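Please produce the structure of this protein holding protoporphyrin IX containing FE.
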Amino acid sequence: MAAPVPVMDDISIATLTADPYPSFRRMREAASVVWVSDARINLVTRFEDIMTVERDHGRFASTNPGSLMNKVMGHSLMRKDDEAHQVERKAIEPSFRPGVVKNHWTPVFDRIADQLIDSFADDGEADLFDRFAAPMASLCLCEMIGFKDVAWQDLAAWSQALMDGVSNYGTDPQTAHRAAAASDAIDAAIDAVLDDYRDKPEATILSSMLHAESPHSLEQIRANIKVIIGGGLNEPRDSILTTVYGLLLNPEQRARVEADPTLYRTAFEEAVRWVSPIGMYPRRVTCDTVLGDTQLKEGDQLGICVGAANRDETRFSDPDAYDIFRERSSHLGFGAGPHFCAGTWVARQMVGEIAVPKLFSRLSKLRLDDNRPAIMKGWVFRGPVSLPVRWEI
Ligand code: HEM
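Below is the modeled complex.
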């Protein structure tokens, strides 16, 4: 018999932000869905329950008129279902196809990674967050969107402001204000270049949207570019850092990867499982229904905790370990179902084939800085906020 959603009053946003994994384990043990009062949301944390949700968009919709994301970014493809979702997804796909990533974006990403490493290779030490991962992700995304005069620091600040706004479940007014200002600045940046892409199609995302089979309104373009700025910058940044961190903490795995560079791909994939950059995203329950052992009501808001599911011990053995040789590796870090991450191939190439391998091959004897420990933060979005390293010069 399905039971009502149990309440967990002793789990705070602060605890989740510092280290969500012990709380995630308690939630997985407690029930299919738990209510976390401080975050004011029902959380789904077990791998199989999330697969059930993602296979059934009739009962568990992405469309969500009251969602924070709609307020912060406008009504994007991420909060639509079925036909409405598919036409907008199709419109961006030309920029993300594996062939386009390989032939068009790879040389761009290569150049950006090399220029960044050139700028600090002689220093012997750096915090890889601000010297490499943040500018790498931001400069690559500027190129992909088709922005011309936007500084990487501005794009990164807009992305952070949007993401903070979207995860502002505590409804802090300053966070909401910063997100609104970022949204206005992005609209202006789009307006400044849009006409440049009208005449002939290019690989950029703005061009793909303008030349889509089904014409897009300015409102659709703006909302979807904001989703891409939110989801296409912090996640590659965080997964660059997490992959480097995972390898530096595990010298044996690092040695195997350096001996066989084709393993960098696996190192990246395992990093996205181990610390999922998007730890949680929402769905809405469309009818009274049962999920696993829990009774849900129409209109319930669910937080789909892929960060927790990726540590589910019924799915992964020794789930807290970073282990690129684990038996079962397919994970939920890129989501699942119709909204499966559109940028997966871009991220695999940018992070797993270019950014991380170049750091290890160009910075001799790369190691963690013993005097300055790495700092991890977040649960809705999670990754290192600082990764100090040293190398031989
Ligand atoms: C390691 C890097 C990345 C991770 C872990 C990641 C993760 C995710 C996840 C979990 C979703 C599903 C969200 C949901 O269903 O609500 C998603 C969707 C999406 N991602 Fe990514 N992402 C990454 C990189 C990127 C990049 C580089 C781009 C673009 C340049 C991108 C663009 C998108 C878009 C447009 C969607 C929405 C797809 C849809 O609704 O159909 N992502 N991503």
